[in-house]
Amino acid sequence: MKKQVFSLGLKAVIVLGLTTLAFTLRAETVFVTLEKDNALAIVDPVKGALIKTINIGQRPRGIAISPDYKHLYVATSDDNTVKIIDAETYKEIGQLPSGDDPETFALNSAGDRLYVSNEDDNLVTVIDIINKKDIAHIKVGVEPEGIAVSSNNQWIISASETTNMIHWIDVKTNKITENTLVDPRPRAASFTADDAQLWVTSEIAGTLMILDVKSKQIIKKIRLDIPGVTADKIQPVGVVIDKEKKWGYVAIGSANRVAVINAQTFEIEKFLLVGQRVWNLAFSPDQKRLYTTNGQSNDISIIDLESHKVVKSIGVGRFPWGLVSKP
Amino acid sequence: MSRVLLKNVFLIFFWSINFSFADDKQVIKIVYISQELKLPSALSNLDPFIQHKGLTGAELAIKENNITGEFTGQKYEIKKVLVPISADIVELYQQQVGKDVVFVVTNLPATQLKKLVKLGSSKGKLFFDATTVDDALRNEQCLDNVFHLLPSRAMRADALAQYMMKKRWSKWFLVTGPSQADRDYASAIKRAAGRFGIKIIVDKQWTHTYDARRTAQSDVPVFTQEDEYDVLVVADERGLFGEYFDYRTWMPRPVIGTQGLVATSWHRTHEQWGAVQIQNRFKEQAGRWMEEEDYGAYLAVRSLGEASVRTKSNKMQIIKDYFLGNEFALQGYKGKPLSFRAWNGQLRQPVLLAAAKSLVSVAPIEGFLHPKSELDTLGFDQSESSCNNASIKNNTILPIEIKDEKSENELDRLIKQAKDKIKQFIDNLK
Q1: CATH number of the domain at B3-151+268-348, please?
Q2: Which residue in A30, A87, A310, B276 has a CA-CA distance of 20 to 30 Å to B156?
């Protein structure tokens, strides 16, 4: 089996080499949760093909990978659990007590804590991964969704969609210490690699907000207006920033585009047309490519980050929700 | 730890917070007022009678506002005034609603709403009409300081018409019931037909009985034996006979309107854009599905929550200005930000097109374009509305402060003059 994959990978490299796409020789795997197919799609992004689809549980949504790339964590919302999947064999090796209806979660940089948003109960559940135990429940605003942990392991932030706030939770005490009121229906949030800023999207106001982590204040608000697209279609969701803090990327839902934002000047560089209702984003491990899940067109798009061009879209299955990649 | 136990722990936790901070919180007082109505008897026992439609929605929103209030130092209090069927609403309102309350959520028919808004003691209060659908209230009879949460009949009819145009089912057979509400619904349907190029082939009044045995089996086939048409549109707001048409028409034709495929602001089949979350929260609280009236009252209280959190205020004028400004964007679980139309106080919103167990589509339908917001392809757009609400208008169009009635009349005169001139100009162009 492995041999076969390898030879396919080799063929792909030759093909791609001919089309002068600057992909590296290294193999890479992208895992995509398929909300409606109750499955996980496994994609070879170098070859640009869907390798296989495995059944995983009811309504899989949030997904993360351990820092050593050995374990996948997948929230199977209707099973009320987060499953641990071996990233090599794709076998389920355990479950985590996520609380009801887990959708999004964040993994800390050490890989030993998982923070889960429990949307229906207005809670953030803290899970000790090694002991597979829930160790704290933090009361937050109505409908918590976006969640992130700073890489210095100081802050957990939870975005509540109806309360319209970013709650700043101290990692040491698991208590909220501050709250920042943001634009309506904040969806996703990401820390910059240096932990100096938090980038937050507002689905309803159509904005990207840059928060200063020290002051917890919004220092910049960017309206993601697209010429020729009416304002009510501008529904930003996923947001990621590269390690060098050079570029940030925002998935703009029903506008079917990804905004490329200069992370230094906060200017919008351009909009890239991807699939329909683009939802979540993930970098390749080397950050040379960006992957998007397109919920309505049932595919993922691959963006080459050197040229900022969409180079390929790959059909994966119904309602692709989240994705991660591993070398 | 079990979920129930956990919840109780937090409830206690919350109470203690409430208690300790109660003094220095900004309090936002709301009155919810409704009156019992005389309802026609139900067609069947399929749907249980629902008490407190509307109130439960307001209560859910208060709960949510107060969770946010924990973080913003605000507290939302609701006083319920439930008027018995035989009581005088004006009398009770004047007894129960004091000067200290400026925000009033109403679950009342248009006639009662108008009575309350026009009272001297209502001056300085902001009304949230959570339940009416009357087009007149959004046009020639529009009221000062009233915001309408549910889509008007015109918005509903336009939503249906857009979807029918997409399907190219453009020949309609309209059946209108005997009540004024039915006639108003039928007028909205006719307006929509005119706007979207739909032909009403047959236009008939329902004059038969409401008896299932007789009406459904024998009257409907005969009644519908008419010229060729695509869909049958029924205008029966009280639900007395509309359900009898499906499967019984002379020709095999789908039914839309007040029965069959309905246009509504909320429906139990709706679960996109986070709607499943609020459906679950509501069911957990009420033990039943969320109805349109609940959604209207929910949005009323939530919009006040949103505006008061953003402005940090509980003052009527500040809240009203915020509603009418460009910043206000309410999350209503329909995928688009909701906002108020400055010209008549109507909440802009997508309209759901639902069959009994399936959400068929959501209007505005793709392809119906508008220079400002596609949501304004539904209902009376700014240029079409005859709402002469100077105090609402002057907030957005004319930055003139009006201090007395005299200058208000003067402004009306100027607006009329300007309108006439524009009309003249257009006529000349023709």
Answers
A1: 3.40.50.2300
A2: B276
